[in-house]
Amino acid sequence: MNKTLFDKIWDSHVVESIPNGPDVLYIDKHLIHEVTSPQAFNELKERKISVFRPEKIVATADHNTPTQDQHLPVKDLLSRKQLKELTQNCEENNITLYGLGHPYNGIVHVMAPELGITQPGMTIVCGDSHTSTHGAFGTIAFGIGTSQVAQVFASQCLLVEKPKKMRVNVNGQLKKGVLPKDVILYIISKLGTNSGTGHFCEYAGNVFEDMSMEGRMTVCNMSIEMGARGGLIAPDDITFDYVEGREFAPKGQKFEKQKAFWKTLKTDQDADFDKEFYLDAEDIEPMVTYGTNPGMGIKLTGTIPLNGGKSADKALEYMGFVPGESLLDKPVNWIFIGSCTNSRIEDFRVAAAYIKGKQKAGNVNALIVPGSRQVAKQIKAEGLQEIFEEAGFTLRQPGCSACLAMNDDKIPAGEYCVSTSNRNFEGRQGQGARTILASPLTAAATAIAGKLTDFSKNLN
Amino acid sequence: MEKFIKLTDTAIPLETENIDTDQIIPARFLKATDKAGFGENLFRDWRYTNEGKLNTEFSLNNPLFTGTILVAGDNFGCGSSREHAAWALKAYGFKAVVSSYFADIFKGNALNNSLLPVQVSPEFLQSLFKYIKADPLGQITIDLEKQQILILGTGESEKFEIDPYKKTCMLNGYDDIDFLLSRLDSIKKYEEKQLEL
């Protein structure tokens, strides 16, 4: 029978199928962080059960951590307590933790791939919806709630109904200045925020085949923003080259053996999808969002749609925009380059290349937050730090930061922020903050101009 | 887990579409390490203005509307996987949420906390909004056994879908951990088989 990539991974991880019910799905890697794990550890304690497979769990501190003075005790007492509980829980249960200050510390979806923890063919879960990121390696990776975190602690398995399958094909040549972030924002704007609900989405076509791993991670990361449980891309030489040699990747003969298996992980010809979409790369331009969900996106040079309906009116009122309006030349006081969507080295390279020799506009606060300690190290090693600093950008220490504003990195009420993160929900970046989602290039160009600008003419 | 069998009550309408979990419980309230107290901050930034005053236009603050059923616009619970959203709705007093569409992770989280997500057709959702607004004291019955939602005042009803396994869990108060622990032997066998490959 012809199987999809998704079927192949899923079926090989089913421990058993309950008649008329869900599958017991085995989880290869469980990533945890400080915000969604404490109640799960408590649950285990209350039931007097221990963690079943601690060696399959990796922990990091990222959501609720400061991006300044990480060597000092965390000022916010609730945050400090949450981080302390994570440390204690990991110690008590023999779980590897890359806590604040550890050389491997970083945003969970940045640090796991860069350490080679994420490998093709795996099932990966984390109490975070952007776990879909890891699908870039040809894995089944999805976000779970805290009750499910406890279930995986207890059994290394989850009870889940097999999702449906969809495929999004994008073929053609991307225009200059169009980044993976623009591709995924375009897809979501075309298909809608609930088009993927109940589905796993495979991305196919030469656009994804030609993308770097960083780019594929950006795309898969935002699968959840169209409602999909996860997204995935078939692993290929780009994937294998990325994984090879990383800290926890298999080595030598083991790697070769794994690679031979990974090569079989692709969708068979004529395999069935429940839904399939075809989009042209040539139609994609740099994208920005104008509303309060990631599906409310337009091309940077476009105008806000008329007649969006009641919910769109509410969103526009929050954003301070009107239907028919263009966002070009809108003054913007904040830009944020960071988050699990766009905080990898490639994102900072593209931003730095644009910024080099330029100065940020006087009205702009430009925040650069690397996804991990390793990315921060590389920013320094490649000389990007000087470029950012000379241009007046603020470089912080790694963490989720202003993507969800759990720490002090908040955008003030009423202010616009061109952000490379994944959600433009009301208040996401701080109470009353107005988020415009965009690529790192668009964010960098906005910082220089002090307003949204058609930067295509400035590209070399 | 608490059982859910049948519920008859008034409902609170919240017609906004795409209500994300950041609205249900903003991230700044996720610093707690236990499950208590999230009810106070449910829909915090809609219930209160930026200055901390009660927003009287928000339906949860409208004294006309009461009840343990929340009737909400399409695509409820999208966004973050935070289970705190389900805890906040439960702690506030809701026992069921009705919408024409639920985001996957929220739906799972709700079911794991005995908060019943009831997915109805867009037309039935509109009938519900019309009914509640016309008669805020009008009652609705949600019968899990029959998988039926009934508008008592008009007699309109609709069947709803639920995974049969999850239905059994809700009706009996079972949860997934109990079930998975009963399967540890087959899980270990699966692991052994993988090692051989």
Can you put this structure into words, describing what you see?
The complex is a heterodimer of chains A (460) and B (197). Helix content of chain A is 30%, strand content 17%. Chain A is an alpha/beta fold. Chain A has a 5-stranded parallel sheet. A 5-stranded parallel sheet of chain A has the order 17-16-15-18-19, with helices on one face. Chain A has a 4-stranded parallel sheet with strand order 11-10-9-12. In chain A, helix 12 packs parallel to helix 15. Chain A is globular, with a radius of gyration of 21 Å. The relative contact order of chain A is 0.13. The mean pLDDT of chain A is 97. Chain B is of the alpha/beta class. Helices cover 34% and strands 16% of the residues of chain B. Chain B is built from 8 helices and 8 strands; from the N terminus they run E-E-H-H-E-H-E-H-E-H-E-E-E-H-H-H. In chain B, strands 1-6-7-8 form a 4-stranded antiparallel sheet, with helices on one face. Chain B has a 4-stranded parallel sheet with strand order 2-3-4-5. The radius of gyration of chain B is 18 Å and the shape is globular. Chain B starts with 5 loop residues before the first strand and ends with a helix. At the A-B interface, helix 2, helix 3, helix 5, strand 8 and helix 11 of A face helix 4, helix 7 and helix 8 of B.
Per the principal axes of the C-alpha atoms, what is the gross shape of chain B?
A: globular
Total helical segments of chain B: 8
> How far do the termini of chain A sit from each other?
49 Å
Count every beta strand of chain B, where a strand is a DSSP E run of 2 or more residues.
8
Average pLDDT metric of chain B: 96
Order of helices and strands of chain B: EEHHEHEHEHEEEHHH
Total DSSP E strands of chain A? 19
Q: Please identify the oligomeric state.
A: heterodimer
Choose one word for the global shape of chain A.
Answer: globular
Mean pLDDT of chain A: 97
Query: Which strands sit side by side, in order, in the main sheet of chain B?
Result: 1-6-7-8
Helix content estimate of chain A: 25-40%
Which class of secondary structure composition applies to the elements of chain B?
Answer: alpha/beta
Largest interface: A-B, 67 and 54 residues
Structural class given helices, strands, pairing of chain A? alpha/beta
Main pleated-sheet profile of chain B: 4 strands, antiparallel
Strand content of chain A: 15-25%
Helix content of chain B: 25-40%
